[in-house]
Amino acid sequence: MRIRIEKFGKVLVSRPAGREALLVMLSAFRPAGDTEPLELDFSDCLSIAPSWLDEVLTGLKKEYGERVVVLPSANRSLVESLRMIGT
Amino acid sequence: MFQGRLERVVADPGVARMDTQSLSLILAVTGEIGNNCFDHNLGQWRDQPGCWFGLSSTAESVVIWVADRGQGFCSTLRRVLPDIGSDQNAIEIAYEQVISGRYPERRGNGLKFVRNVINGNPDKGLYCCSGSGRLGFGGACGELETLAAGSGLSAGLGVFTVLQWRFP
User: Fold this and answer.
1) Looking at the predicted structure, is the pLDDT value of residue B155 above 60?
2) Domains of chain B by range and CATH?
3) Are A17 and B31 in contact (CB < 8 Å)?
């Protein structure tokens, strides 16, 4: 299953907004079975801050573990945020 | 409300001149600084809640400032580091260590992200005051320090941050 993150906003910057997005993802996007990956597609997002990303990734990985995959992106804020939160 | 103001930054003529990658970084950096005002002062404002968020752009650069009348770094971090000591020590720890005044929540990487993006970059700078603490980094920080000193602004017990992005 692939989630188009752009649908949650183009500027993704706070923990409260990240927590809200996580709750929606857990409720509305459920990968099939025990093996289907959950792919996060950040194309068309303008900016992603580590606080927002940490809330979302930590919560999704707690539920789905290594099935959560961030699709490759050239967006510098995403690259730097991933590096910062150690993912 | 801060999120809404931040998204409108994109419409500024100076910001609109930025390339996509610079825009993604300046929004993320400003978002971390601005949201800290609210995340660390909720229910604990000294008097006026919220932050003063402004932007000024020229053909050479974009300058953004965020100021709040909250608890400041020292008071916030003293909850997890009772022996933190001075305002200067607190502001340096806030930007250099992955630590948060909101323990036991696992957070505290926002300002480290800000530092990583700006530090060592000749076209960017950040200058921050909290209480008697002062911290600057990035190639443009000397200019910002002069600007802050000349303006007569003082953070008092809150936090005042100004950052600059020069166009290459």
Assistant:
1) no
2) 2-166 (3.30.565.10)
3) no
